[in-house]
Amino acid sequence: MAHQHIAFIGAGNMASAIFGGLIDGGFPADHIIAACPDADLLDAVAKRYGVKTTIDNAEAIRQADVVVLAVKPQIMKSVCEPLKSQLKDGPLFISVAAGLKVDTLDHWLGGGQSIIRCMPNTPSLVGAGASGLYGNARVTDTHRTTATELMQAVGIVEWVEEESLLDAVTAVSGSGPAYFFLMIEALEEAGVNRGLPLETARRLAIQTAYGASKMASQSEQDPAQLKRNVMSPKGTTEQAIFSFENAGIKAIFDDATRACSDRASEMSDEFGKI
Ligand SMILES: NC(=O)C1=CN([C@@H]2O[C@H](COP(=O)(O)OP(=O)(O)OC[C@H]3O[C@@H](n4cnc5c(N)ncnc54)[C@H](OP(=O)(O)O)[C@@H]3O)[C@@H](O)[C@H]2O)C=CC1
Ligand SMILES: O=C(O)[C@@H]1CCC=N1
């Protein structure tokens, strides 16, 4: 893996979360090149991470074994089409764009490309990412191993057998960090309403989210049982949990993830016209 050269097209939140996590995990920064039109952003990225940079996407992919497409879905077509004349040995493409299908990307890239769609998330930056992956028919076992190793360097990897399931992955883990940040925000505000200083409420809320997540990831008990373990009969927690349940917390998550996944599928029509 470390001998591969990786080009990132786009150097924003998601690209920097992935290459930042890779470098922290020991991947050589000089095997990474990031491209975007903003020279100031590239200067900042080069300073912070030590990666090579260019404002020329075609130059970025020239030596690349793997090309990570990390631009907004809206502009993916205009980014891919000019690259097709530059493709010789066919690097492995990994697109992190929400909604855009492998066939659409392949068409924009001139056809016959090996393309993996990946739905990562921003905790990749701290080595705690979660990615869902799906590959087109040209993707070989070697490609799958490369993509798995790449994304495992920044978190966990789950392959899905049907492309449409990536919309569900988006709804759970791609967009998921925002749900947990929202919960931390809400818990911190509730703590302030109960009289705690903001900084104290924030530290307690963040550490509690971290502790619960760490326990859930290490325990043999499922999350529902871990929840019950905190709920002493006639104690305090059950009052809070009853209050959440009466407010329809599970239906709220069901509705929110449906809206998210529906939007991913809509984006495929909106931005994926060939
Ligand atoms: N943010 C997230 O949590 C997640 C995002 N994604 C996906 O990642 C992709 C990128 O999102 P995100 O990182 O948040 O967005 P950002 O806006 O942070 O990053 C997009 C990057 O693309 C660059 N860019 C714009 N035009 C071009 C171009 N013509 N050539 C090369 N680079 C260009 C931008 O540069 P400039 O600033 O100069 O415009 C910027 O660096 C999206 O497709 C999104 O669906 C997937 C999972 C999670
Ligand atoms: O909000 C978005 O569209 C992107 C995709 C998943 C997370 N962020």
By secondary-structure content and strand pairing, the structural class works out as alpha/beta
What strand line-up does the widest sheet have?
3-2-1-4-5-6-7-8
Encode the helix/strand succession as letters: EHEHEHEHEHEEHEHHHHHH
Helix content: 40-55%
Main beta-sheet annotation: 8 strands, mixed
C-alpha end-to-end distance: 33 Å
Quote the CATH topology of the largest domain.
Rossmann fold
Q: Output the CATH class name of the largest domain.
A: Alpha Beta
InterPro entries: 6-PGluconate_DH-like_C_sf, NAD(P)-bd_dom_sf, P5C_Rdtase_cat_N, P5CR_dimer, Pyrroline-COOH_reductase
EC number: 1.5.1.2
Domain Pyrroline-5-carboxylate reductase dimerisation: 163-267
Family: Belongs to the pyrroline-5-carboxylate reductase family.
